[in-house]
Every structure is written in structure tokens, then in C-alpha cells.
């Protein structure tokens, strides 16, 4: 099997308690000596989605957000469940794929640890009235490097919103703290995961300090 088609899964899992709901996440190699534990929230079932939505909503209910914003693709189910748990109806999705109705969208450039190359975040201008002058809760599945989340915050603020909180299921390692700066104070997460390294052919171990 060539390096281009090699399966990056290592055969190891990392167990994490997500606010009382235990999941086993596959450890996936990003480089020969570096790996992450990968959470695909869309593969973890309806009960998990409802659980994280309820738990995150409880963290931010006292802030009385007017609307929830999530980022495509894996932030969408988080946004839906948090919106439902808060008793709200509308939510806004920041897209990453250009579509015909996004030709004139507000745009922010980002990068991600799990995606190759630079990406764009796109906000449909038709959604701006939902955000302008509103108290907004931004949610996502995982924050790792912080680049994607920083882009989301900048784009929402371009639309005239006040970001009152940021909710994520998992924080990963610590790089995001430097990227987000003072916005770290807005973040609430349900659990934390490290990153992993190995020596030679040994098993993957958490990197100290992550």
C-alpha cells in the first residue's frame, strides 16, 4: 500500500469522558511521528448529539444568547442541538464550500489541522440581519490550532454581532490559546484531548503538556 493510500488509523483509541458520556476516539496519524484522536460527531449517534447540545446549552443559558452560529461541516449538528436545548429556533451556518447563493458572501480565510491547505469561511449576506446587533453563541466540535474558530469569530463580528460565548465539545492540546488570545476567556468545553507522538514502532503516547 502506497503512502498516498495508507490508512492513517493506528489501531489505538483514546477514551474521553464528555461531560458524563464516554466515547472511544480513534488515534489517527497526521505525520509519521504525530497523531490526534479524531472525533467525528456525525458518527456518534443521536443520543450523543442531544447530550452535548444539552450540556453546552446549560453552560451558556445565563448569557441569554439570541442565536447560535456553527461552522460547516461538523459544527452543524452541534449548532442544531445547542439551539434546540436553548429553546431557540434560528441558527446560522458558516459555510466552507462555495455555492451559487454565496457568490457575494462575507469571507474569512482559515486553516485547519485536519484539512489540507487554506480554506474559506463564508457567511450568506442574507443571514446578516440574524446576527447584526445580536448576542451570539459560536459553537464547534473541536478547537485545536484555533485558526478555524478565530475565523468564525472574526466573520461573526464583521456581521455586527456581539459574541457572548464560545462552546466546543473538545479542546485539543494548547495551540489554540495563543491563536485566540483574549477570546480564550469566552470558551467553554465539555472535555479535553491531548495530541500524540511515538518513538520508533512503539505505541502512541500523549505528548506531555498537551
Number of domains: 1
Helix content range of the residues, please?
Answer: 10-25%
Number of β-strand runs: 12
Shape category: globular
Global structural class: alpha/beta
CATH class designation: Alpha Beta
Commentary on this structure:
37% of the residues are buried. The chain is α/β, with parallel strands linked by helices and 210 residues long. The protein has one domain (44-192): Rossmann fold (3-Layer(aba) Sandwich), CATH 3.40.50. Strand 1 and strand 2 (21-31) form a beta hairpin. Helix content is 23%, strand content 36%. A five-stranded antiparallel β-sheet has the order 1-2-3-11-12, covered by helices on one side. A five-stranded parallel β-sheet has the order 5-4-8-9-10, sandwiched between helices. Strands 6-7 form a two-stranded antiparallel ribbon. The chain starts with 8 loop residues before the first strand and ends with a strand. The longest helix is centred in the N-terminal third of the chain and has 16 residues, at 45-60. The chain has helices at 45-60, 75-85, 128-131, 147-158, 175-180, and strands at residues 9-18, 21-31, 34-37, 67-71, 91-94, 106-110, 119-123, 135-143, 162-172, 187-193, 195-197, 205-206.
List the helices and strands and how they pair.
Elements: E1 9-18, E2 21-31, E3 34-37, H1 45-60, E4 67-71, H2 75-85, E5 91-94, E6 106-110, E7 119-123, H3 128-131, E8 135-143, H4 147-158, E9 162-172, H5 175-180, E10 187-193, E11 195-197, E12 205-206
Parallel strand pairs: 4-5, 4-8, 8-9, 9-10
Antiparallel strand pairs: 1-2, 2-3, 3-11, 6-7, 11-12
Helix pairs in contact: 1-2
Protein name: Adenine phosphoribosyltransferase
InterPro entries: PRTase-like (IPR029057), PRTase_dom (IPR000836)
EC number: 2.4.2.7
